[in-house]
């Protein structure tokens, strides 16, 4: 899931400055779970805006704003209200805000910041993270991703900044990824893997989607429809 | 002059370091370098240490070189991608710099520009690979160079790290990637350093022990709590604690010189990190018989 946090109301008011009427849009997926985009949070936002003289001409909470088809069908009954609104204030993640902006083709204001979880997308999954690097290192690291588990994304071993096995960046919540990798491989009797592994070089070119993907149906559904791709 | 030549000649190498200023006022850095010049073989110039934005180590290294002081250009992976790092290495060679210490670098979150992007496109190992590749006449992509450098490449290792196995594995990778010498994190306990050296000597690469001037018992406790791989034994903390403020510089010199004497026979040099007490360095070397 994507975790979001509501922007301060002052910031949202700056976005809508000069506008008289807005439409509020929430998301019943990750944003609702984050406490930013569910029914009650949208009602609360409505109150806050009304108190400051902004007219709210309509509101809707849609399941999964990350899916443009759902945004399209969800907004269809509100065409009248949307026509009267100067803008749409969207209280969800960056994906949902972008999807809404594309579907509505109107001024859209983000009401949330999307908090980085280190590469996770709009799926509901466990604590593992993937940044879609295109050159999976997991084979050499005991199945622990150095790109997401290490604050410096180091692929050739630890930096020397860890203290008592804790990461120098956020010791209170993060262990040194290489300490964890070492511990697992040692437990499995596979430490030799680290010695045998040749020097790794990150290839950021592989983070670009490959040519062969661009002809697939999945690509057509996910990407080719977007304005950026056209 | 390459440090490798000194190691090859069997000399016990002595280096120290200076930090470029935060700003353009170079007086203090140059004064510190002048105070050290007659007593050391080379002076490291730190690369925005602790992720604090400062004047660059490349130009500062060039300025020392112009004054006849041998620089060790420190280069970290925090702020530049592989294009900029390789470019800076070529620039360094053009500026007459021959020794480079290749480091990963502290994370941005430790410094004074918290909103900066931590780059880490390369790491210490792949930076060494890049520098070695330049030495061999090609960039990391294998593209040929018109004219190539011939750097003496250094790297760092933390003997007090736990698990030390992981340090030794990475040290081996650095050797394979062209490291011609190692500089260590601060050493205070000669006995545990000797255990490390027992294992590290199989690489056959010179090791320069890091020596920090202890300024107070408080500083020692702070380092024990906050600096990775540094362990000041309780005995040294007690010694500092029992020393009056005005006697601390002399005690600091005595302790540093003692550590140097203790490690001298098991490594190939010392790197003294004065952390503002540059004036005490000659006394340390005198007391250590260097």
Mind sketching the topology for me?
The complex is a heterodimer of chains A (230) and B (290).
Chain A: E1 3-6, H1 9-15, E2 21-27, H2 30-34, H3 39-51, E3 55-62, H4 68-75, H5 79-84, E4 87-91, H6 94-104, E5 108-110, E6 112-115, H7 146-149, H8 177-187, H9 192-196, H10 217-224
Parallel strand pairs in A: 2-3, 2-4, 4-5
Antiparallel strand pairs in A: 1-6
Chain B: H1 3-8, E1 13-18, H2 27-37, E2 42-45, H3 57-66, E3 71-76, H4 82-94, E4 99-103, H5 124-135, E5 152-157, H6 164-176, E6 181-186, H7 190-200, E7 207-212, H8 217-226, H9 234-241, H10 248-263, E8 269-273, H11 281-288
Parallel strand pairs in B: 1-2, 1-8, 2-3, 3-4, 4-5, 5-6, 6-7, 7-8
Helix pairs in contact in B: 4-5, 8-9, 10-11
Q: Can you give keywords for this protein?
A:
heterodimer; A: 230 residues; alpha/beta; Rossmann fold; four-stranded parallel beta sheet; two-stranded antiparallel sheet; 10 helices; 6 strands; elongated; B: 290 residues; TIM Barrel; eight-stranded parallel beta barrel; 8 strands; globular
Number of domains of chain A: 2
CATH superfamily of the largest domain in chain A: Response regulator
Percent strand of chain B equals 15-25%
What's the count of strands of chain A?
Answer: 6
Low-confidence spans of chain A: none
Total DSSP helices of chain B: 11
Q: Walk across the major sheet of chain B and give the strand order.
A: 1-2-3-4-5-6-7-8
Gross geometry of chain B = globular
Distance between the termini of chain A: 28 Å
Largest sheet geometry of chain B: 8 strands, parallel, barrel
Secondary-structure element series of chain B: HEHEHEHEHEHEHEHHHEH
Determine the structural class of chain A based on helices, strands and strand pairing: alpha/beta
> Which range best describes the helical content of chain A: under 10%, 10-25%, 25-40%, 40-55%, 55-70% or over 70%?
25-40%
Number of domains of chain B: 1
- The quaternary organization reads as heterodimer
Rg measurement of chain A, Å: 22 Å
Largest sheet of chain A: 4 strands, parallel
* Broad CATH class of the largest domain in chain A: Alpha Beta
Q: Taking all residues together, what is the mean pLDDT of chain B?
A: 96
